Structures are given as C-alpha cells and as structure tokens.
UniProtKB/TrEMBL annotation, chains A, B:
Protein name: LacI family DNA-binding transcriptional regulator
InterPro entries attached to this UniProt entry: HTH_LacI (IPR000843), LacI/GalR-like_sensor (IPR046335), Lambda_DNA-bd_dom_sf (IPR010982), Peripla_BP_I (IPR028082)
Key word ATP-binding present: no
Gene Ontology molecular function: any one: DNA binding
Originating organism: Frondihabitans cladoniiphilus
Taxonomic lineage of the native organism: Bacteria, Bacillati, Actinomycetota, Actinomycetes, Micrococcales
Ranges where the HTH lacI-type domain occurs: 4-58
CDD domains the UniProt entry points to: HTH_LacI, PBP1_LacI_sugar_binding-like
Pfam families linked: LacI, Peripla_BP_3
Length: 337, 337
DNA sequence: CTGAAAGCGCTTACAG
DNA sequence: CTGAAAGCGCTTACAG
C-alpha cells in the first residue's frame, strides 16, 4: 500500500488539506469538532507527515550540522551530547559530520555540495585557514567553535586559551614546581590549538618568573594519548628532568599519567600534571586529573543562539564571544595548601 | 538574491532542466559539449542542488538515523565514529538521536512523528520491550543493535554476551582466582545487557567449578564509572573479600581500578579485573585493562548491509546475526603464564 | 473558521 | 542525446 498523504487524511475526514495541515501543526483556530474528526482520521490512517515535503514548502529542514574531526574523541563526544540535547530543546535534530581532521574533510564542509539539507552549521575547524572559511557554503548560517582562525564575517565562540594555559602553568608554579614541561603539541606544524596553548604556557612561566626552556616542550608524533605517553617515555629515557607537565589536552595527560606511573614516578609528588577539557574520565583516573574546564554549556548555548538569529534573518558581521573556563583542581595537581 | 535553482542553470546554459539534472547527477549519456556548457553555468551561478527537492522526488533522503542512549558514553561515541565512516562510504549521512536511556525517549524513536526524514534506522535499545519495538515507525527500514530483546520481524546484530562473560570469568579462574566478583549491574531492575552478562558470569563460574556466591554481585546505583567505584568502596568497607572482578563494562572497570588503587590494593596481584567493550581508554589507564572486544566493525557492516537490503526493497522476516568477540588481555588480568 | 490553487525544487517516465 | 510535463507531499497567501 502506498504511504498515506495529507490528501488521504483530508478525504477521510471530509475537509481540505489546509485544515489537516492546521491540525497537524497545532494551529489553534480550528473548531474542536473538526480537530477531533481530523485527528481520528490521522490515527486511523497512521498518517506521518513527510519531512521532505514540509522542508521544500517551508524552506527549513529543522536540522543542524555538527562538524568536527572525530566523534570518538571524548571532548567531541561530550560536546555532541550536550549540543544534541540543547538543539533538541529548540526543535532541531543534529546531523553529525566528521572531517577526520583532514584538510579535504574540512574543505568539503565549507563548500558543501548540497543546499537545503540543514538550516545551520556548527563547525569546529582544526586546520582550515580563515580565508577559506570565509567563503563558506553558500548562504547557510554558520558558527565556528574553538580557537582556530575565525574570519570577521562569521560568528565564533571560544574560551581564552592563552589565559587558561597561563592559569594552569601559574598554578603549577605556585605548587613550587620549577621545571614545568608542556606536552602534546604536534611534532611538525602546529594546529592553532597547540599554538595558543603554548603561548599561554610561556606567559604563565613569565608571570612566575621561570625561564622558558625549549627542551621542556615535549611534542607528540600524533595528538593522542598513546603517542603522548610514548613521548614522555622517550623524554625520560633521554634524562629530561621535570617536576610538572602542562598537557595540551586530557588525552595527552592520560598518556602522561600512564608513562609516569610505568616508571614509578609519583603524581603529583614527583611530577604534577594538568589536563585540558575536563572530560568525564578526568575525575575517574588514578590519580584524578586537574584540568581546564571550558564552560561548554555557555559555549553551546551561544553558538545555538547566534545560529538561530542568523536562521531568522540576521545578516550582520560576525560576532565573536569568549566563554569562561575554570581550572578544576584534583589529585594530579592539587590546590596549594 | 534568491537561491539559484535547476531552472536558472537550464536557462543560462540554454538547455532543459532534464539535461542539467543529468549533468548534476553524473549521468553519462550527455554530449561533452553540453556537459561543459552546463557545468560552466553551474559554476557561474554557484548552483547547489536542493536536498529537499531531490528527496521529495526520489523518495530517499540519503540519511540514516543512529539511535542510542547517550553519545558521550565511550562505547557509543566509538561506535558512532565507526558507523559514520562506514555509512559515509556508502553515501549516507548520519542523524544522531539520543534517548537518554529513558523509556519515553526510546518510544519516541519507534513511533517517530515524521516520515521521509531518514531512509533507515540503526537503533540500540536499552529498555524497550520486544513487542513495542515490533511496531516500529511506519515502514522505515530498521536494524537493532545489542543484546536487547529483538522481535522476530526485525533485523538484529549482536555478539554472544553469555559466551563472552563466561570467557572473562573462566580466564580469571585460570589465573587462580577463586572469589570472582561481578560489578556494575543495576541495583534495581536489570537491563537486558546486565542480565545476559550475569548469566554468562554464572556459566563461567560453573565451568570453573566455582560456587556462585550472591554476596559477590556488586550492584551499582547507576550504570557509570563513578557509582561503580563507589560500590566497590562500600563493598570493601563491608569487608567483602574478592580476588577478581568481572565488570559489566569498561566504565565500571575504570571505577573499580580507581577504588582499588585508592585502598592500596594492587591490580592484578591482589585483584584482577576485566572490562567490556575495549574502549580506547582501556589500553591507556594504569594498569591497562583486559577487556571483551566486540567485533564492532563486523557488527556495523552487517547492520548497514541489512539496512541497505531493506531500503532496496527486501521485505522478509528479521535476520539475526551474531558477530565475534575477543578477550583482549592486558595488565589488569594478564595471560596465564 | 475553511477551501481551492499555486508553488517549493527536484526527478522521471514519456516522447521525440 | 534532449525536451515538455507531471508529480513527489507539503505550506501559504488569497478568497470566502
């Protein structure tokens, strides 16, 4: 049997399509009697409105795209969870797009081949240049997340990465640490994320009156926990001495904890460690991880606010907003006593 | 300016809409000369086909829904990553739906209010009964994941949870453990997942000739790492003695590792631990976690295969397929020496 | 409060 | 190989 359409319901209920449509969309000015008869027909026929038909007629799909490199990375999966819930509260569904952190993947997002699929895009770029982002896909509302380059024309939310990295570094200095390493940036060319966090680390050292020692910058062959652990092992093998590590992100920190414990070094007694993102596991590992916690709820709320404004027609220049962060202190780098 | 449509391109190129459509969709029987002229017009006008128009005309959206409780749970985020990639290879995009693990959330999935939005649904239910699932949303192709109840009418892929739990338990017994606990099932009514894993645990004990001791069943107020850690702390406080733990999932295992280390118990010397899912963190914690690794790639591939067959018109009874698993041995419960 | 009709932007037999 | 026309299933002014 063919799918039931609006017209079928109208026929059965003995009204026009317009009236059925009014009932379906909950329009209020329908007489109670008519509404009941129509609802009965809808139930009898198990009618389900067709989303494509509606989208085509209204010009809206009720969907937002959420784009980042890889949803299996804890920070992104937790962000996806949050944004999915908040978007759902506003009546939007979420389309998940992964770029694999490649330039081609990110370009595909920006120059999307199809229109009308989503009403807006939330995009956390890793590699793309500001100039390329500026020519984003046609006229779809766009909002950028993260510390990457944001063209002036596009809305953007972030936290102050430099201040956050400096806060972590300063905290370790206040704990009396004098040889504070930085772990987890790329071995080759740096992502914007690594760059700004390294700058903040340097600022933190300066504020504490500590010298910058380039040998304390422990790069990772790849931005993940396994390679970060390996980088720490190799640093220890080469006799590098340090009493604290500021990690680029929690994954790097988990790698560091693992490598330090393998070598019998105590955290935080021998080496204090801070992470970044405050993913759920940070509180669960042993020792638990001190970490920079970005205010992701505010981040996500602002992103959705701005996106909805654009969807509703706002066409001004890009807004750039900075959300708060907090350094959450746990066992790996406890509060100063 | 209004969005450019197929007709606009046709006008500029001086051909019919049909011809433009052929070029856009890569239909081969178009003369080279015409194709070039049309492509030029497409580029000049920055034409983007409208997805809703296409969906309405073809009856397909090119989207699949992926549904489970919460994408921030590592197993699900890793599964979403994998399925997203595999679906993308087949030309599908992924719509993410979270149920929050609530009955209402799962019911909403099954009785979806809209049609035509997705071509198929991949759904891992937690709570819904088989009978309710059987009346799934209209005529949308459906495939079920996991050890939940699957009605005969619906396609379903899973691993043999009973065998897997028995394998973990047997392994601990072969390590010489005699008081093997089970951790992480619900305090109240059990999910199907917990039920089958508990049965497998019991089978494993039997195979090893060990008695079932109900006091060794350590339930958790909530299925997550934090509550599992708390449950272990309380068990230790009450003087419960055990030398191994089979955990319901990796999160419970991470909780167990944390609680045991807090109390100065050595893993695996004092207590050996196995997890379930083999999420990325399992290899990164210290000590690293032995874990049941379901063959998720096969699971996902089969799910997509069956879904595509249904999308292509297959209308037979449900297929039920069982993928492999493997017990990955790491430090927390190493190979028998 | 309700109806008849046009239109959203595509694809697809059907002709030629 | 290409064109003219109908149709996919909705919504929305416009009338009444």
């Amino acid at each position: 049997m063919a799918k039931t359409r609006l017209q079928d319901v109208a026929d059965v209920a003995g009204v026009s399509m317009k009236t059925v449509s009014n009932v379906v969309r909950g329009y209020e000015h329908v007489s109670e009697k008519t509404r009941l008869r129509v609802q009965q027909a809808i139930d009898d026929l198990a009618y389900r409105p067709n989303a494509s038909g509606r989208s085509l007629a209204t010009g809206r799909s009720g969907m937002l795209a959420l784009v980042f490199s890889d949803v299996s990375i804890p920070y992104y999966s937790e962000l996806a969870h949050l944004i999915s819930e908040l978007a759902s509260d506003r009546g939007y569904r979420l389309l998940l797009e992964q770029t694999s952190g490649t330039l081609e993947g990110e370009r595909a997002v920006v120059s999307a081949a199809e229109g009308g699929l989503v009403d807006g895009v939330i995009f956390q770029p890793s590699l793309l240049s500001s100039a390329e982002i500026a020519q984003h896909r046609g006229d779809v509302p766009f909002v950028l997340l993260g510390e990457g380059p944001a063209p002036l024309s596009v809305d953007h939310v972030m936290i102050d990465n430099i201040a956050a990295a400096a806060a972590a570094t300063s905290h370790l200095a206040r704990l009396g640490r004098r040889r504070i390493a930085f772990l987890g940036h790329e071995l080759g060319s740096q992502t914007q994320t690594s760059k700004v966090r390294l700058i903040g680390y340097q600022n933190g050292l300066e504020q504490a009156g500590l010298p910058l020692d380039l040998s304390l910058l422990i790069a990772s062959r790849s931005v993940n926990a396994g390679e970060s652990a390996q980088a720490v092992r190799e640093a220890l093998d080469h006799g590098l001495e340090f009493d604290a590590i500021v990690c680029r992100d929690d994954l790097a920190a988990f790698g560091a904890l693992r490598a330090l414990q393998e070598r019998g070094l105590r955290v935080p007694e021998d080496v204090a460690v801070t992470g970044w993102d405050d993913v759920a596991m940070a509180a669960l590992v042993h020792p638990s991880l001190s970490s920079i916690r970005p205010d992701t709820r505010t981040l996500a709320t602002w992103a959705l606010d701005m996106l909805e404004e654009r969807i509703d027609g706002y066409d001004g220049i890009g807004r750039h907003r900075v959300a708060d962060f907090e350094l959450v202190l746990r066992e790996s780098a406890p509060a100063v006593s």
